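Page 47, continued from p. 46.
Same chain as before, 198 aa.
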Amino acid sequence: MKAMSIQKIARVLHALVLIALICNLVILYLVPVAVVSMEASGSHGLLAGVAEYLGDIFHPGEDDIIAAGAAASFLAWFWFWQDTASLSLTLFLVVSGICTAVILWQGRRVLQTILRGEPFSMENAHSLRRAAICSFTIALAALARVAFNLWFFRSLAPLFTYNALFVPIFAMAGLLCLVMSALFRQAAEMKAENDLTI
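Result:
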């Protein structure tokens, strides 16, 4: 592939990562709203809670006001502390959301160096190392949530949830980022040595 085609791909990926980062930050703000809505309505899914909240915001009834919905979304950050299961779910989703935002930001930084034509820099090695730390944090948070749910519900059902799936996926992602970080660091050192010999 030519350098220009790689930069075109990097430009498209940069835009997609930026869109994903913005969506992640919006959803991160709505996490307590989804948990509180799910608990209040008795539904069994976060998407149902978010859909109910957004339906109320975008299609207000006679007594509903958009400002009241916005205020309720802010107050939801204080309501989820009342129930242990809600607290566990909200904290897990917030920690995972923050780590995901950091991973996306680090990916954006790596793509920026590719767009500048400097892919083998120490900056990329540091960015990938930060992404690895965040991946391991998500894996540990998922493992803690699975262990907590095994104890709290006294059932094996938490072993068959997305939390149990997150543990190996994000652990492998963290290891992959660490390997890529070491490769980028080694390539940056070799490039610096070659620049000094010329």
